[in-house]
Amino acid sequence: MAVKENLSEVRSHLPAHVQLVCVSKFHPNESILEAYECGERIFGESKVQELCQKQETLPKDISWHFIGHLQTNKVKYIVPFVDLIHGVDSLKLLAEIDRQAAKVGRQVNCLLQMHIAQEESKFGFNEFELREALSASTDLSHVTLCGLMGMATFTDDRDRIRAEFRGLKQLFDRVKEEFFPHDSRFSILSMGMSDDYLIAIEEGSTMVRIGTILFGRRNYPV
Ligand SMILES: *Cc1c(COP(=O)(O)O)cnc(C)c1O
Question: CA–CA separation, 34 vs 49, rounded Å?
Fold first, then answer.
């Protein structure tokens, strides 16, 4: 597998202000190390157990991002080392991250996940719920809200994908202005995957989460 070549291709499309999260879920340590040797340090995983195993065995200067759906009872396993949790989709989860982070004396960076897709199945807040969560979360002292994350509808309709990303960027700007006008930490808009990251960048993404076009297709356990 030519991770190095794939990386060069992806990097050639990334403006300097866009960060790459190499989504390594279901891929072995060897693939991660190939990207690591090319200079990549940010890797994204979506299963707690897999993330913990990889974190233990791979170089300690890797910045691990959790990009999946996080269950409250598993928060404690990743809080000691995780650098950014992308998919925070309830106040209850945010409060649990805060509680566990306080226990280990850490400040944990989080993105709030917005539901922007047509599919019911995808997780995330709507705008009303987001505002409620932001208002209610001001006393959580061990989480840092760093921005928003979203996933577009799984579709060939590029116009729809673009409209969803555009809407998320507009929401990001409103929320930034209203809730974080003087907080430079609220600065990340995580949107864009292998199939749609070019559109996402055009629409204002600052962080893309890319797996398949770097590492190949995932072999899901049967
Ligand atoms: C798996 C996953 C990705 C990467 O998807 P690819 O299509 O393989 O690039 C990005 N974001 C999330 C939340 C994911 O679960």
Answer: 22
